Amino acid sequence: MSTTIEQIRAILHSIKDHNGIDILNKYSKVLIDVNEGLVIINLELNYPVNQSIDVLMKEKIVHALESIGVLKVYINITWQVMTHVTSNLLKSYTGVKNIIAVVSGKGGVGKSTVSANLAYSLYLLGARVGIVDADIYGPSIPIIMGVSDQPEIIEHDRMVPIIKHGIQLNSLGFLLDYDSPAVLRGPMITKIFEQLVSKTKWCDLDYLIVDMPPGTGDIALSLAKNVPVVGTVIVTTPQDVSLMDVRRCIKMYKKVGTRILGIIENMSSYVCPHCMNGSNLFGSGGGKRISAQYDVPLLGELPFDNYIRSQSDIGEFLIFNNPLTNIANKYLDMSINLSKQIALLPKNDRNIFPPIVSR
Ligand SMILES: Nc1ncnc2c1ncn2[C@@H]1O[C@H](COP(=O)(O)OP(=O)(O)OP(=O)(O)O)[C@@H](O)[C@H]1O
Question: Which atom of ligand 1 is the closest one to the Cα of 138?
């Protein structure tokens, strides 16, 4: 008896990828054809798929189909990121499908480093990505990414983002005088922040990463209320003081109704490059505990890696220089996890213009 399209569809729906996430979700489009024993599958997914994921997915699908006796199969995978509904139900900005804020309970946990590398790994997956440095206390993204140019101002006070390593970039540091940051507080700084995000001429972005200042201050509240953000990613280190601040941060974002897309534990372990023994510099398992306690996905755990620090200091990307390192793979896994969390959110239908009805 030959395999039916329904059986193949059911098999596809049962497959999980190497992150343990369903290969298909409610927005995936699947066209299946069976022609003289050859099964043809055309899959359109709503998250980025690079070549290695494409290969892994195809292997999984072929393997699963073999179990029901399908031996000849052709699979074609394409993808298209869609715009998802924002936490505050605001309409998304033109040119930006999904805004993701990277936040932390306290300073120095590696939020900017994670933001830059997360942006770059999403870009390596094939997505169009931008990054906004909104850290009023010290905009480090231009340093990490090795950018010193200023964005060009065009008509209607709009700014053209700088492009570096394929990523569109703008920073509060380009707009503020950092010799007198204390003067800029409250409404003034939140207005500049909102303009930075909304008045940059972003070009066709799948994801815009916002590197937020640490803590739960004015900019965090302004983000929650006035920026069409799909959600936040919280960066923490595993030690107890850091986790205490994360709890406060999670409670604040939950209170103001901003979605939490996941937690990233940074500097979670250290492997000595000489003896190769691992140790937990700042304790262990904190990210997992927080994730379980607040029912928030743990997107990844990143080790302490001196190469990250030295590369960031000279404005180079770890992944850019060495895409095959263990930590580069961890970043890629993390960005795949994040893109899939976003892929499951409802669509933002408010961005779709009503059809023009001719009389
Ligand atoms: N996984 C890591 N391994 C080693 N060093 C790291 C790692 N992540 C970040 N760092 C280093 O830690 C320092 C602080 O990182 P970063 O500036 O990204 O933190 P931050 O949370 O954004 O800080 P702030 O709140 O002050 O803006 C930097 O020198 C950075 O290179």
Answer: 27
